[in-house]
Amino acid sequence: MKSFIERNESFVCENCGITVTRHPTSSRDHCTACLYGKHVDYNPGDRLQTCHGLLEPIGLRVKNGKQQIVYSCNSCNEKRYNVVAIDDDIQRLTEISQLPWQ
Length: 102
Ligand SMILES: [Zn+2]
Ligand SMILES: [Zn+2]
Known about the structure:
The chain is mainly beta.
């Protein structure tokens, strides 16, 4: 089975089905359209997590001057945080920024 968001490469989003292109500078860790990710890391980029549940975006926070998407894993309920990518959908980011995730 083809793995999802394994490296910085394009992938098909498991939530909305679009093909997400590679990140221009960093590792692509979530869909730019619906912002969903996948639970594959213990620490950012290590891909050692075996859960592989879908990460649902539930809010936005600012940490160290960077906007981060707050995720809740659909499978194990762990909270995860991914830095916003420059080509993420602005309207979707605005929507989740209004969610009371805390
Ligand atoms: Zn998507
Ligand atoms: Zn999980």
